[in-house]
């Protein structure tokens, strides 16, 4: 909250010192010239000139980029200025080892560049309306940049001068790698989270009372398979995040004694997970912990993802780009861990053979309402109840899949609505009947050369559950708290808030304004959290 008080939209620029600004302005002009000289090689800039680029003038036949850039009130120019400044900050952020911020800036730079190039392609000037959001988001980032990267302006200018020639080359390589950087930064386990895992594991093996306590209730085993109860699953290696999911579900549940949580984690986090959920209670909610290494059916002869990972070409695909530096977390280097907890969502009936209905929650959500009505929703014979994401055209099928591929073209409507993973109600009876796991295997095997889609679980999810998905009311699952601004009313009404995106609430790069909604469910007074310096 500190960084983003109500005044954060005040003009960014006023805060820079005059000297700094003058120098920077010089540098910007320099950059501009570099850019202009590049732009002038493009055919679009050769078209006849237009005197007033800023009118919404439909008689515009072409655009004189030079003139557009020199015009005082040009939006394109404003965008370009911001881009140049942002590029400088990318360099500084990288030098201060703040890769995640560098990534955020690069992502925003790309957004602005897309706007500019679209305008260039269609040969009409950018309008204020279409670029306003980009300009504002970038202004916000630039404002954060000066707060985050504690530079002394004179040294920064020296460094900038030194760097300015290499800037363009660096940007190219950053653009290529930026998605990877973002992923690495987001995947990197913060020290305190790592500490918590270690302490909990120690506690588990030291304290036999704890081991006895977990599920000591006599009828727990029966409840785990009782289809009259509300079953939830979370697949995660993050104890704290999982705790927030369980705690927030329990606190907002009308009947917590009817809630059963099935957690699946990996070998490394198994003891810690068990320790945490036996030393804390959550209003009588039953919590069961498993590790996926115990699932004997999860083997390379059954699971295409595992089979494909044995292939060396696939391995190098997953490994490459990790840069060989030791900052890359182990998880990222091990493709099995990279993907298995993620891919487990396609094997829910196998993981829970006795269950008929279950709500799947990602570990980066927080629950704000009683979720039991979900179990009463009629899915109309569908397998997956999910919130659709088609309000924006870019969340339709064509965004995620390769429509040059004949298999995709002939099977899927490119304009079909995408939907979100993270809060799904699954009808496991229908799942088994419709052989959904088989459908998933079919597509996963067709994608052995990764021509249908690249990475992630959403694209195969879209293929697997195509025509088997029932749209839920959007208030069940509010998305975007990890990367964008979300309407306050949607947040207020939302049953499940999802911090999808890289700015997870447990990371430093988490969005400050959305952290309290999540932190509310963290017990910062807990001795182990205190020992590990949370907050
Ligand atoms: C673009 O405008 C500038 C300044 O008005 C002018 O000098 C230049 O010749 C124009 N370029 C083209 C390609 O028309
Ligand atoms: C692999 O999984 C299949 C299908 O679940 C199972 O039948 C088989 O026994 C498993 N193989 C091993 C080696 O565990
Ligand atoms: C399910 O699909 C798989 C792969 O498409 C197929 O091999 C299997 O026979 C199917 N099972 C049933 C019960 O239809
Ligand atoms: C998309 O599919 C086509 C046809 O199979 C293939 O040639 C192309 O390389 C694919 N594109 C990507 C980005 O994989
Ligand atoms: C769960 O959330 C409540 C409410 O904010 C909090 O007081 C409590 O300490 C949390 N419990 C755990 C185990 O995190």
Automatic annotation (TrEMBL):
Annotated GO MF terms: polygalacturonate 4-alpha-galacturonosyltransferase activity
EC number, as in UniProt: 2.4.1.-
CDD domains in alphabetical order: GT8_like_1
GO terms of biological process kind: cell wall organization
Pfam families: GAUT_1 (PF25557), Glyco_transf_8 (PF01501)
Location(s) in or outside the cell: Golgi apparatus membrane
Enzyme class: transferase
Gene Ontology CC: Golgi membrane
Record-linked InterPro entries: GAUT (IPR029993), Glyco_trans_8 (IPR002495), Nucleotide-diphossugar_trans (IPR029044)
Protein's pathway: Glycan metabolism; pectin biosynthesis
Family: Belongs to the glycosyltransferase 8 family.
Topology versus the membrane: Single-pass type II membrane protein
TM region(s), chain numbering: 20-37
Keywords from the named record: Cell wall biogenesis/degradation, Glycosyltransferase, Golgi apparatus, Membrane, Transferase, Transmembrane, Transmembrane helix
Signal peptide positions on this chain: none
UniProt name for this protein: Hexosyltransferase
């Amino acid at each position: 909250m500190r960084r983003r008080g109500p005044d954060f939209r005040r003009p960014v620029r006023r805060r820079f010192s005059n000297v700094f600004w003058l120098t920077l302005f010089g540098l910007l002009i320099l950059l501009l010239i570099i850019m202009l000289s590049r732009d002038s090689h493009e055919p679009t800039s050769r078209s006849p000139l237009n005197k007033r680029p800023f009118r919404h003038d439909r008689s515009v036949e072409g655009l004189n980029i030079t003139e557009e850039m020199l015009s005082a009130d040009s939006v394109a120019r404003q965008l370009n200025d911001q881009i140049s400044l942002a590029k400088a900050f990318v360099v500084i952020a990288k030098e201060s080892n703040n890769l995640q911020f560098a990534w955020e800036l690069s992502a925003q730079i790309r957004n602005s560049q897309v706007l500019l190039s679209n305008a260039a392609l269609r040969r009409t000037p950018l309008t204020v309306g279409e670029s306003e959001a980009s300009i504002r988001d970038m202004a916000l980032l630039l404002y954060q940049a000066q707060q985050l990267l504690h530079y002394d302006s004179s040294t920064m200018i020296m460094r900038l001068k030194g760097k300015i020639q290499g800037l363009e080359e660096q940007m190219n390589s950053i653009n290529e790698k930026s998605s990877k950087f973002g992923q690495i930064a987001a995947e990197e386990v913060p020290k305190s989270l790592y500490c918590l895992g270690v302490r909990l594991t120690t506690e588990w093996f030291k304290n036999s009372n704890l081991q006895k306590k977990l599920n000591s209730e006599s009828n727990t085993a029966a409840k785990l398979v009782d289809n009259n109860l509300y079953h939830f699953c979370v697949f995660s290696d993050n104890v704290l995040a999982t705790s927030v999911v369980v705690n927030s579900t329990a606190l907002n549940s009308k009947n917590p004694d009817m809630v059963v949580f099935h957690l699946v984690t990996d070998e490394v986090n198994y003891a810690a997970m068990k320790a945490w959920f036996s030393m804390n209670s959550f209003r009588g909610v039953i919590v069961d912990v498993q590790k996926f290494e115990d699932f004997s059916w999860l083997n390379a002869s059954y699971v295409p993802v595992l089979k494909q990972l044995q292939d060396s070409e696939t391995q190098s695909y997953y490994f490459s780009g990790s840069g060989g530096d030791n900052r890359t977390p182990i998880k990222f280097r091990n493709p099995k861990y990279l993907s298995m907890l993620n891919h487990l969502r396609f094997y829910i009936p196998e993981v829970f053979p006795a269950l008929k209905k279950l709500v799947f929650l990602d570990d980066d959500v927080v629950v704000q309402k009683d979720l039991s009505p979900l179990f009463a929703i009629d899915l109309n014979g569908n397998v997956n109840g999910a919130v659709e994401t088609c309000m924006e055209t870019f969340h339709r099928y064509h965004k995620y899949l390769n429509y040059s591929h004949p298999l995709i073209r002939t099977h899927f409507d490119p304009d079909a609505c995408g939907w979100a993973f993270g809060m799904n109600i699954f009808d496991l009876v229908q799942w088994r009947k419709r052989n959904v796991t088989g459908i998933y295997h079919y597509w996963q095997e067709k994608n052995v050369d990764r021509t249908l889609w690249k990475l992630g679980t959403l694209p195969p999810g879209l293929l697997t559950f195509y025509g088997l998905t029932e749209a839920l009311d959007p208030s069940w699952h509010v998305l975007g708290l990890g990367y964008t601004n979300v309407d306050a009313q949607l947040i207020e009404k939302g049953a499940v808030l999802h911090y999808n995106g890289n700015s997870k609430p447990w990371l430093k790069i988490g969005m400050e304004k959305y952290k309290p909604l999540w932190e509310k469910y963290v017990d910062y007074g807990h001795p182990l959290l205190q020992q590990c310096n949370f907050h």
